[in-house]
């Protein structure tokens, strides 16, 4: 794991915050300002545009307030992880523990439900499904998502011990290459996944890491983007639309990832399933932190209004406001019970994984 972590640090580098690698930020979100009031950019037509002025119209949202800057605290997080990894044992008693809280007993079954979730997310992000053209992009996103629900040792992903319904990470990367994903994007996707698996694993086995994040909106946001692999997923979606990213330098991908995570958290809070999550982003002074989270969200969405790929970028960044209320993944969080997979859906899933 130390080798993987060092490779991630070397690949991502620091960005705007010295000593932050691999939690790279190209944009200091605390410096983002609203656009001019006379800005009539037609990119407002894409995604779900709920501006700062309109948020108070919704009882589940409300006003916003700028958070204090805790962005530079990411250096302490990085150092804490450095120290932990350097002294960590090669295995942990909780390896392969299930964290779904949905009465799951089989990791393969969780993988199947995870792939179902990815198909539904993709419907919102891409607006269509071409399971032949984008098969390996879907499996890539699923490979990352499973890290949220199962405590998988990162080294097992690297050496192929862990397989997602029979497929190794090497299989997925080769598949992405066969789909003509640009080599630079392919490397970015791989390193995002390495980073995600490490921070997801440490988040589950090191409770002190969570304590360092609590009550710090901009710090929590930076960490959240890494654990969710929202940037890697954004690049996979862009690749499906024929758009190449700028990799570690891409501020648009950064804004897309932030919007995706925070729109989802806002909707989960409205649904009532964010409160009590082991990794909830607004634990503590809840009302203050929600106002700050909304501030970060609207600043990022405003930034996306001015980009050429806004039709894709804003759809990706804002769709969490809708899919949380429609997808089984979140309905299951309310009931604690899985929704059975239909025969038609099962046929699509079997086609993606090869039976």
TrEMBL record:
Q: Which superkingdom, per the lineage?
A: Eukaryota
Q: What name does UniProt use for this protein? A: Terpenoid synthase
Q: Which organism is it from?
A: Aspergillus ibericus CBS 121593
